[in-house]
Design a protein that fits this description.
Length: 95
């Protein structure tokens, strides 16, 4: 069973992390680390995104995840417990 709990759009600026409180009271921090130019003319530029999750009380659940994604690409982080299930956090890179 899947249920959507929240939806948020973040306007990330390079080097300026943003935080969101998750439904289980953990804190997600997301940052745009870099924009990598395409190596070939027909390839898209890529975005280097970092994410970390801090549990209430300051312990790290996910110390640091770094993803290299192109525009329109999705990636997911899962594993945080919440009300008898787990949170699956989906990201979509939109320039």
């Amino acid at each position: 069973l899947f249920r959507s709990l929240e939806r948020a759009k973040l306007g990330l600026a390079k080097g300026k992390p943003m935080t969101i409180k998750l439904p289980n009271q953990s804190v997600l921090q997301v940052s745009l680390k870099d924009v990598v130019a395409a190596k070939k003319k027909d390839e898209p530029q890529r975005y280097v995104i970092s994410a970390s999750i801090q549990q209430p009380g300051g312990d790290s659940f996910l110390p640091l995840l770094e993803v290299n994604a192109k525009a329109g690409e999705n990636f997911f982080v899962a594993g945080q417990k919440h009300k008898g299930g787990i949170l699956v956090i989906g990201f979509k890179v939109v320039p």
